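Margin note from the TA: students keep mixing up input and output lines. Inputs are the sequences; the output is the structure of the whole complex. Example:
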Amino acid sequence: MGGFFVPKQGAELWAYIIGAFVVGLGILYALSLTPKSLRKTLIAGITFLGGLFFALEFFWPVDTAGPMAGKNFLTAYIKPVSSVTTILGAFALGLGLYSMVSIHGRAVAKRRENWGFSAVLLGAILAMAIPAIWKEYDKSPQIAGFYRIMYDGGFNPLNATMFSIVAFYIVSAAYRAFRIRTVEAGILLMSAVIIMIGQVTLGQLLTAWIPNENFSSNFRVENLSNWILTRVNSPAQLAISLGIGVGTLATALRLWLSLERGAFFDEEL
Amino acid sequence: MDNFLRLIVRAQRIDRRILYLLLALCIAVPIAVDVPQPRPVVMPETQSLYNTIESIAKDPVESKKLAIVCTNYSGGTLAENQTQNEAIVRHLMRLKLKFAVFAFATPQGRELGRAVADKLAEEYKYVYGSDYVDLGFCPPDAIEVRLKAAVDDLPGAFEKDSAGAALTSLPIMAQVKTVNDINLIVEVTPSETLPPWLQFFQRAGEKPIPTVYCPTAVMGPEKYPLLKSGQLQGMMLGLRGASEYETLLGVDGFGHRGGASLSLSHLLIILLILLGNLGMFAERRLRRQQGRA
Amino acid sequence: MKHATWPARIILLVLSGIILYAILSARRGKKLYLRRIPGLNAIEEAVGRAVEMGRPILGSIGLGDVDVITLQALAIISSVATTAARFAHRIVLPLRNAAQVPIAEEALRAAYTAGGRPDVFNEQDLPFLSGEQFAYAAGVAGIIQRERPAATFLFGTFYAEALIIAENANQVGAIQIAGTPSTTQVPFFIAACDYVLIGDEYYAATAYITRQPTLLGSLIGQDIGKMLLLGMIILGVVLVTFGSPFIANIFGDKDLETFAAYFRAATGGK
């Protein structure tokens, strides 16, 4: 694999960074000059090559003995590809940040409707990002403390609050929608009630007097609940997974081979 | 009778804020007031998780290897995932097993996982770098390739701990070179983060690595088939699972304390669903009566 | 599994072969039948209602990365956008993954162009909200309460935010169509939405809406593949029942068998 993928230090590192930047700009410039008709072929080609690397690495038979045991000729490149994927992910974050700041920045600058919300959002980004970055360079307890206030006192509780809203919505959705209009709905309701009771200690107490051995154990609510989860739920989950798995394979094949003719795959770019 | 039916029908149009208030009370009151409650029945999947860790500790070769505790949760699911994580880490520390904290779904997961390890380390005299290590955060887009790379060169794939120290410089990593030096994978998560472990890591070595799953209650049912197939060796299902695990460990954590809230809220939901259905039947009956009149 | 085993290689090759053959047959003009999927029939109705009410349409492509599920979701939303474009109507599509932003912009611009109204497309309607799950959920809930969409289309990978989004849209009276391969979230969508696509209906959606031969052929190929797998399962069950572990030996994993012992021991050997 050579020394190209080995981490560099000092001046050599900077030379590589500047080199990568220049080469990247060059590629972007060359791409902008490419005729529109050729762009589609280029995208299809790059998509195919990207997919081919992973497909070949996974399917190509591996050596069974020797220094390359358990590896094939592509395995060594997995690590650099891992780094490239990480870097591309980081670029995407920049894109997202740009989208967010440009939309909300414009809203504030032009005093659009609800611009106050946009201002709060931009303020919140700064309030969280500044101490988070600062604490990496300044190890003083004040900065760490401020960061913890923002993180433990602000971010975490807000996150937990949003998740806890799910519980409230389950109550209103279940109350509104869980109606026994058909036999199937009745069976569904019965199963749901058994599982809900079987999951909690108060429910388990209802049948705690039944001996948990031999045939009688089948009538204890936690065992009934477990039976539904493992004997009814499991096969259904497997069947759905099978269908989804084959569906994923088909979609992946269409994307990889650029056979897709969706709204965004067949348009002139 | 008609008045009763009308009352039930009217209850169907109850303001949703009243329902929300009832639920909030059902959850908050038992936490604020310590309600005594029985221990839960331990389910097979929880028992199996416990047995798995116990058998690793009893094995003279396996017990020397490193466990990976992948904490892929954020502040939103602290109640379930943090309680599960605490129970697992406590068990590992009790048995003197070495472990690594890692996350790839959210950077918060690493911080939260590390915080639990640091907190319990004081109690069990665990030393960072010798008994446990923080492998840091890997962006979700890169996890599959990162795990593939870690199969043959684990310290090379992760390179540094979260503080920037080279992994090879830490004593805990002295014997950890490849996938074969891992004895357990623990996935604590509220989302679909198990597949990369099963696809690219669990069976990449000389023999499969025991893998256990600690999902939020809603994510668990999907993974029951994996217990039978042998791809999972145990599962701690939500807060209920954590409570069962605490029973096995003989500790009183949030899993046990939160049990009463769980019981009451489930009961409330069942009652409301029944009330809603009664309302539907009452409405039909009233309509029929009006039709006849 | 770090590398494919021989049975995995053969099965994937056979399945891929079947799917590709079906696609090529369909492209050559073979007539194919597709059963009715009520949720997808309701798309026009939902868009029409939004136009009548003069309120926007809200879409979400979920929490996924730029993967197969998300791209499928984007293809469905693009079809909705083409229909909306015919009426010069707005779609708001808040995004959770930064990498989705350029792809979604490109897809919706193309969809509005295909619908004949590229001038109606507005990049501001595709805001990136946050990479954090619940920050995204809060953002979408806020948009729903402010914009009061008349119709919502929720497709892609969803977790706990599914109910937060769907229930908020329910509160503002939106007609809702959802579809996800995340089976754990299907019950929540069923409780809060008007139409839900279940399981691999999700992957049939674009074929159903667009009737493009490639997609129809792919769907038929998938069904043949599933039949093949089902046949193998039934054959395996019959053979094992009569004492021949032939198929079980091909696909079984002896190490995993030893492993399953942990769980069997915990369940008392059941």
